[in-house]
Amino acid sequence: MMEHLNMQSMDKVAANVAKIRELFPNCVTERINNEGQLEHAIDFDMLKQELSDHVVDGLQERYQFTWPDKRKAILAANAPINKTLRPCREESVDFDNTENLYIEGDNLEVLKLLQETYLGKVKMIYIDPPYNTGNDFVYDDDFKQSADEYIDNSGQLDEEGNRLVANTESNGRFHTDWLNMIYPRLKLAKDLLSDDGVIFISIDEHESDNLKKVSHEIFGEQNYFGDLVWEATTQPINAGSAKFGLQKKTEIILLYGKNKSKISGFNLEQEASDLSYPHTGKFGSCRFEVIEKSDAGDYNRDSMKFKILGQSPRPGKRWQIGKDLAIKLAEEGKLEIVDGLVKRAVYPEDEIDKIKVKPFWSLMLAENVGSAKNGKEELNSVMGTPIGFDTVKPLGLIKKLLSYIGKNYLILDFFSGSATTAHAVMQLNAEDGGNRKFIMVQLPEVCAENSEAYKAGYKNICEIGKERIRRAGKKIKEENPLTTQDLDIGFRVLKCDSSNMEDVYFTPKEYMDKQQSLFVDNIKKDRNDEDLLFDAMLKLDTPLSSKIEKITIAGKTVYNVAQGHLMACFDKNVTDEVITAIAKEMPSYFVMRDSSQADDSVAINFEQIFNTYSPQTVRRVL
After folding, report:
1. Separation CA 465–CA 468 (nearest Å)
2. Nearest 5°: phi and psi at 601?
3. Can you name the residues that pair with 341 across neighbouring β-strands?
4. Distance between CA atoms of 321 and 326, rounded to whole angstroms?
5. Average pLDDT value for residue range 510-516
6. What is the rounded distance in angstroms from the CA atom of residue 502 to the CA atom of residue 53?
């Protein structure tokens, strides 16, 4: 019998249990879950003992960073959801050819949906989350109320039904709510990073301490590189408005690696060094150094007066290096007789550790990377009208971060705002010939009716971000027509939505036999074939930017994704002829509707056909 495709996001709890089972099989037990089924579970008392060098007996004081509902925040990251990403061609640019993605939706849900397909595939993450200033909105993931209770109590819903709530300083859970928001998102983001991947997080003083503690816990203190300090403003601040007369002009960007030991290094700029190599030795440019010094007084050591290259030290002198090192250098050809003296030839590769490198966490001056004012001006310029955003990151800053990593990689920004990151990716690719690709994620936060953005015709932030990418890409091409012919300035728009499947698919026990008969097809009526295709791509290790070819076989539409990696047919009355033609292509995965088979004979022959022509193909039905 053909296996059904799992339509939920990855169950992180089950994945974590499996990892622990590999390391500590004695710490995994069995229990009956709420549905009466047997499942694996962790014996936490035994696990504590395995991780302790003494007998564990009750609670002990220990160093930890915690806050109310932290355990529920962890649960929020691990719990699966019944959601999907639906393609929106009409809002996309070059949908069929682009490798960039713009995803609308709550980033916690989107990060969960990306887990299977993009696990370990993102080289760089940059985020600029809410700073918790007391005036901004934060995502409310509803740890203490049911969804209906929350909506009734807050009334904070945008047009897409997403929950937003103002986090004011008078709120008794001011820091708690912010931590509960950021923790599960960073936890999920870490899993998307490649082993040599990095994450940059912009923040200011309101939550910088808490963010660093959270990041230490999630990414590991050993994977912390340091902070970049960005000069956000060059404008002098009125001393009367600054606390104690202190002027806030900078923000920090935390930098962590997924696994610092696997990151070979960044493309750091080097300052001019006072080390010079004016001479030419056996192996190229070098500097010759005299290796004699006075043997007077305490320096008189007979053991340092041996012959090198057939010469002894001059009278009153002794060598500065020992005999073993002298033999080694002579064998390597790095001792030479120059002007009658034995000298050491020092080459650049011998002094790599002495090159003066700018600290990676040094001050990033606005004159080099731009200020928040520059970012605002850049946004207004490309949009052709004031948008009213005052805290936009400048292109120069994001381009600088992008340039440190390389030229060919995938970058994720799941607080994308006005899409500065996407703009910077396209701009830098145009400048250095790079092939960076982006995934932008943004909640469609509603623009206030009295805002400049709303007056300019933009109802939510996603509309601003998408239009900025369209306009920026077009402008970059126009300004560089000869060098940007192959530049990818497109993006596929995907929108987070409820599952494509009817409720009976997830909770069949709640439906009587008579009711189930109403669901001849378990797929929602408003969903099309492309919706189903992208759902399958999410679940079957197929990048959402993959090339999609639509072909016809025996009158049926067949999708060929990523050159045969995934093939799918969602038409009705699929015959043996269609199945055979697909099987002969030997795809890695094949997906069809449960109700697509023309008759019982097709269902019977299905497995035999694939076993004959392509037994390795993973087959799934919806």
Report:
1. 5
2. -65, -35
3. 338
4. 6
5. 51
6. 51
**DSSP class per residue in 538-562:** HHTT--TT--EEEEEETTEEEEEET
CA distance 545 to 101: 7
- Residue 320, classed as helix, strand or coil, is coil
Question: 458 near 388, Cβ under 8 Å?
Answer: no
- The number of C-alpha atoms within 13 Å of 191 and in the hemisphere containing its C-beta is 19
pLDDT in tens, 18-75: 888 777 766 777 777 776 677 778 878 767 766 766 655 655 565 678 888 888 888 8
Distant-in-sequence, close-in-space partners of 572: CB < 8 Å, separation ≥ 6: 593, 595, 596
Strand partners, 225: none
DSSP 389-451: -S-PPPHHHHHHHHHHH-SS-EEEESS-TTTHHHHHHHHHHHHH----EEEEEE--PBPPTTS
Tell me how far apart the terminal alpha carbons of the chain are, to the nearest angstrom.
13
Q: Exposed, middle or buried: residue 315 (CB in 10 Å: 0-12, 13-18, 19+)? A: exposed
Q: For the whole model, what pTM was predicted?
A: 0.77
d(CA 508, CA 511): 6
Rounded to whole angstroms, how far apart are CA atoms 176 and 491? 36
Q: Are 15 and 601 in contact (CB under 8 A)?
A: no
- Tell me which DSSP letter residue 10 carries: P
Contact assessment for residue 408 and residue 99, using Cβ atoms and an 8 Å cutoff: no
Spatial CB neighbours of 9, under 8 Å, sequence gap ≥ 6? 80, 81, 83, 109, 112, 113, 115, 116
Task: Quote the CA–CA distance of 179 and 93 in Å, as a whole number.
Answer: 36
